[in-house]
Specification:
The chain is of the alpha/beta class and 312 residues long. The chain contains eleven helices and 15 strands.
């Protein structure tokens, strides 16, 4: 096995005769934000439990930061911050006590754990809850505390299982911003989610899992390079732009729907669309009001491979 933050070989888990994860080969380079994408029930959480040593594989190999799981689990987990799908905590502890305790478990001295807990309560927005008992917190507040707990030991690798599931929309936006900050600081982030838009906004690598098997894996920009073939465009004079586009070699079809031009491209000549159309708009003094893919590139891949999308 080569030098990845996470690498698995033929990772498999059966429960009785039921196959939950099968021959899964994960390749997570160091320093990336890797989105582990799949519908509920695809095997994401089972995979993460095996990566963190909470569940023993039926067979297959796991290496985390060059170390073998589960044989070197103690050393691995000192370098990993883990945020489970359903945050677990000591209900009778205060938020501050819990984070200090988790810091001590991660190997920090007491003074370091106290300092780090205070920093992370501010960073994750739970400073005012420092002396609230964990049992008193809402699900969203627990999620924030769980994120702080994952960061307490300043880990090299973060493993986050459906980390925004209990956050409100503003909380989700804040969380995505913090993940991007951590990536810029050199952390590797492995983020499991069933929300396509969340993966697109956050991740530069993606692995798509279906029925416990990997169906696509790689850089998001490489996987989606040829997927955005339909574009929505609105300018101040749609009729003029549509007339311009009708006979272009890179346009397979163009039509107007509810005031929006839909342009279907021939991917062989798509680059000309992105050079000629802006030039035409500028030369004719048109105002550009909308320009975007009709559906997200990852969503197009999912629709092809799953024959349908899934609920977010």
């Amino acid at each position: 096995m080569t030098d990845y933050a996470i690498e698995t070989l033929r990772l498999t888990k059966f429960f009785g005769k039921r196959n939950i994860v099968y021959n899964l080969d994960l390749r997570v380079p160091k320093g990336v934000v890797y989105g582990f994408l799949g519908p509920n029930g695809a095997g994401k959480t089972t995979t993460i439990k095996m990566l963190t040593g909470a569940l023993k594989p039926t067979y297959g190999e796991i290496r985390i930061l060059g170390l073998e799981m589960p044989r070197e689990r103690v050393e691995i987990m000192r370098k990993v911050g883990y945020m489970p799908e359903k945050p677990l905590a000591y209900e009778d502890m205060t938020v501050f006590e819990f984070l200090v305790y988790m810091g001590r478990l991660s190997g920090l001295r007491r003074e370091e754990a106290i300092k780090r807990a205070r920093e992370l309560m501010a960073y994750t927005g739970v400073g005012r809850l420092a002396f609230n008992r964990v049992r008193e917190l809402s699900s969203g507040q627990r999620q924030r505390v769980s994120f702080a707990s994952a960061l307490i030991g300043d880990p090299e690798l973060l493993i986050l299982d459906e980390p925004t599931s209990n956050l409100d929309p503003i909380g989700r936006i804040e969380f995505i911003g913090k993940v991007l900050e951590l990536a810029k600081a050199g952390k590797t982030v492995f983020l499991s989610s069933h929300i396509v838009s969340e993966i697109e906004r956050t991740c530069n690598y993606v692995g798509i899992i279906k029925d416990g098997q990997m169906i696509e894996q790689g850089r998001v920009k490489d996987l989606t390079r040829f997927e955005s073939n339909d574009y929505d465009v609105v300018v101040s004079d749609n009729a003029l732009l549509m007339e311009f586009l009708r006979d272009k070699v890179y346009v397979r079809e163009v039509w107007e729907e509810e005031g929006i031009l839909r342009v279907r491209l021939d991917e062989r000549f798509a680059e000309r669309f992105f050079t000629e159309v802006p030039q035409f708009i500028s030369e004719n003094g048109l105002a550009l009001k909308l320009f975007k893919p009709h559906t997200s590139p990852l969503e197009r891949i999912l629709m092809k491979r799953f024959n349908a999308g899934w609920e977010e």
